[in-house]
Amino acid sequence: MPLALFWFFALVMLIGGIAVVSLRNPVASALSMVASFVGLSGLFIGLNAFFVGIIQILVYAGAIMVLFIFIIMLLDLQAEQKRTPKLAPILGGVGIVLAFTIQLIGILSKSPNLESKPLDLAAASTAYADVSPGISSKLAEGHLPDVNLIGDVLFKGYNLPLQIVGVLLLVATIGVVVLSKRQTT
């Protein structure tokens, strides 16, 4: 990933995170969280974690944030009244950030910058030979089955629990909508 793109996505993520905390309007704060998720997704894609980056957009920036905004609209939250900030919580927050930064710099300065060992794909292909021949053949060819491995294990080994969780989420969503409806009598 080019350095300029890294800094762009990092700034989008950080500015979105700061806006989540600092904005008073709950809808604007939720939309700022979407911007932060988009920046994080760009960083994941820059690390060649394409699956995690796309899932970050689809699940978090898409589904979860739509649910958050839906709940905010159902609760009919009003903008918070302005109050004078107290000095003790601000100093406490700044102190925690400084302590974490000092600790992080101390740890990173002492850790060696070692390269990781290459993966032994031949040994992994023999381990998956009985479980999944498709994954075993991809590993033997030298390819890493990113999404194939997850899908194969999830849908072959845990298909019934996955379907049960899907039905439970649907029932829970319908229950939230029914319970949140205002009854007029």
TrEMBL record:
Keyword tags:
Cell membrane, Membrane, NAD, Quinone, Transmembrane, Transmembrane helix
Subcellular compartments? Cell membrane
Topology in the lipid bilayer: Multi-pass membrane protein
Q: Which reaction does it catalyse?
A: a quinone + NADH + 5 H(+)(in) = a quinol + NAD(+) + 4 H(+)(out)
TM annotation in the entry: 6-23, 30-51, 57-75, 87-108, 160-179
Kindly list the GO molecular function terms attached to this UniProt entry: NADH dehydrogenase (ubiquinone) activity; quinone binding
Question: Could you state one GO cellular component term attached to this entry?
Answer: plasma membrane
* Main location class: membrane
List the EC numbers from the record: 7.1.1.-
List the Gene3D superfamilies.
NADH-ubiquinone/plastoquinone oxidoreductase chain 6, subunit NuoJ
Question: Which PANTHER family does UniProt cross-reference here?
Answer: NADH-UBIQUINONE OXIDOREDUCTASE CHAIN 6
Q: Which family does it belong to?
A: Belongs to the complex I subunit 6 family.
Q: What does this protein do?
A: NDH-1 shuttles electrons from NADH, via FMN and iron-sulfur (Fe-S) centers, to quinones in the respiratory chain. Couples the redox reaction to proton translocation (for every two electrons transferred, four hydrogen ions are translocated across the cytoplasmic membrane), and thus conserves the redox energy in a proton gradient.
Q: What is this protein called?
A: NADH-quinone oxidoreductase subunit J
Question: From which source organism is this entry?
Answer: Luteolibacter luteus
